[in-house]
Every structure is written in structure tokens, then in C-alpha cells.
Amino acid sequence: MTDMTHAIDAATLRGWLNDGQPLALFDVREHGQYGEGHPFFAVPLPYSRLELEVGQLAPRRAERIVLFDDGDVENPVASHAARRLADLGYLNVTVLDGGAPAWAAAGYTLFKGVNVPSKTFGELVEHIQHTPRLSADDLVARRAAGESFVLVDGRSDEEHRKMTVPGALSCPNGDLALRLPALLPNPNTPVVVHCAGRTRSIIGAQTLLNLGLPNPVLALENGTQGWYLAGHALEHGSDRFTVAVPSAPVLAAARERSVRLLQSALACPRCRPRRHSNGCMMRTAPPTSSISVPPTNLPGVRSMARCMRPADSWCRQRSLYRGARQPRHCVRRRRRARAGGCQLVAPAWL
């Protein structure tokens, strides 16, 4: 092993994870092993897909990277991966000595599942900002009582088509700021946002509240899973999609709300020294219009197209697109109508 890929112990790694500097912690085991237990901020990068995915997860060759495996001394996958990354030009690669078992043996937790930090983030948002919510049975009761409300599915159109709460309109979270206002008959009509579980319901609802939407906004607790577990049937094959091009006044209003939200996020003291770095392009679906949106021109924001990802997935699946903890993100807009919304709303959460 070269000096650039030396080994560290679990205590040193824990210190690095908390030193405030960018760090990519990659689990080079296969996805099934990752799901069975990994450090909280670990990102899956299976050795079988190393060359295919590392360029997106760690675009900077000087990125500080730590790799770990299952600690098998007969087949040190992390060491093999470290040497391969060095061959690819990565300059700062380290291996966790003993892998995941050593992390657990040092008294640190291995978390099961996927997207753990993103899901935790959603729970923290709800806890800190007291995002309003209602249960599946509450929604059924409101519908039975004839109450008027707008129910939106904050996931992608593909997920919406597969299954959704009956009557929901597909409006991915990245498009909420742009397209939802035109769907509301008046400022008193409640809006209910749902997803498959919890995270995107919470983030979608809180996004609308942060944008200052005058309507009452609620997250459907536990999404389609909670709906089904409560004994209610799901709808399959829905084609209720929000594809209409917003009018110029609606586009301008969405942009104004989004700019205010992003300005508020950039004013956070932690953001000020971290404004320039690698960037990504947001999208929500194939383009449906050719309306151009003027550049944002916010101080400290510049664009560098690196990848193209659904805007609704950034808070839920961030580990698929960016490997480092404490990174500096830059989001490039697409010159389409949706840029007035998702271009600015998604970075506020990042």
C-alpha cells in the first residue's frame, strides 16, 4: 500500500468525520452488505462499480477519501480499491483498518438500511420546524366529510404512476414552488403532500411553508405505506401529471419566493465560507416547455454542470450523487420553466 493510501483506526476516522472538513467515507462492499450495517455517514461505492461511480461521487481528485470493507484480511477489498483510486489519480485515499467490524468493536454504531442520513434529516426537519401532518384515517375522514383540499404526490412521475394515494396529483417536490400555486382555487384550500413514506412528505410540505404559501399545508403521515397499512387501497396507473406551462405571473411569483428562500439559506453563517465548489444540474422530468428564466445572480453562487439528477431526490438520496460529507454544492439551472422553482428551492435544503 502506498503512503497516499495508508490505514487509520476507527477513533481517527470518527475525529475526521467531526472536524468540519469535506470527507468521503465509502463502503466498498456490495449493496447488500452495506444495508446490513455501516457508519452513519458512509456512502455505498461497491468495488464492482468503483470506476463507474467514483467520478460522480468524488469529482475532485484531491478529495479526502476513506474506504472500508468487512475486514477480511484474506481479501482486503478496501486496499484493492485504494490502489485503483490511486491509479485513477486520487491523491488523498485512506483505508479504515479492520473495516466495519473494527468500527463496531471500537464502540461505534453500525446503522442498517439505506439513505439513513437523508431520512434522519427529514425527521429533524419535522421535529424542529413542527411540520403539520395528518394520518391516513384523518384524510379519509376529511374526504368523507366533503372537505375541499388539494392532494399532491411529491415523488417522481414514475413512482406516482406505480402507486399513489387515490386522487393525488403528481407534482414532484422540485416542482412544487413552480406549479402548485396555479392548482389552488383560493388561499384557504388546504394542501396535503404525500410520498411513499415520510421524508419527501415532510420536505415537500415544509418547503411550501418556508416559501410562505398562504394555504394550510400538511404532510400525510407515513405516505402510501401508512395509507396501505391503515387498510386503504392504493391507486395504480395514475396519469394525473402537472405538465402545463405556468403563466408568466405564476413563474415570476415562484421565482421570487424561491430567491427569498435561497437568500435565507445562504445567509446562514455555516454557508458563507462554503459557496463555491462542485455543482450539479437539477431536473424533475423531461423538458416540456422552452420558457427561459433569467440568471439568478445571487452573490456567492456559480454554476458548474457535473451531473443531472431529479430535484426531488436530493434530500432523500443524496448519497447517490455526492460522496463527501461537508461538501460545497453548486446547482446549475436548466433554461426551462421549472428552473424558476427547483433551481433555487433544492439548494436551500442542501
From TrEMBL:
InterPro entries: Rhodanese-like_dom, Rhodanese-like_dom_sf, Thiosulfate_sulfurtransferase. Pfam families: Rhodanese. Signal peptide: none annotated. Residues 19-112, 145-236 form the Rhodanese domain. Keywords: Repeat. Transmembrane segments: none annotated. This is Rhodanese domain-containing protein.
